[in-house]
């Protein structure tokens, strides 16, 4: 049971970080254009 929680966390964390980084990057570039 604990292994499943750790696996889910390792699987979700990179996706969340990727969305956060790409979302923040696109937001910064969009603001820089204006």
From TrEMBL:
<protein>
    <submittedName>
        <fullName>Uncharacterized protein</fullName>
    </submittedName>
</protein>
<keyword id="KW-0602">Photosynthesis</keyword>
<dbReference type="GO" id="GO:0000287">
    <property type="term" value="F:magnesium ion binding"/>
</dbReference>
<dbReference type="GO" id="GO:0015979">
    <property type="term" value="P:photosynthesis"/>
</dbReference>
<dbReference type="InterPro" id="IPR036376">
    <property type="entry name" value="RuBisCO_lsu_C_sf"/>
</dbReference>
<dbReference type="InterPro" id="IPR033966">
    <property type="entry name" value="RuBisCO"/>
</dbReference>
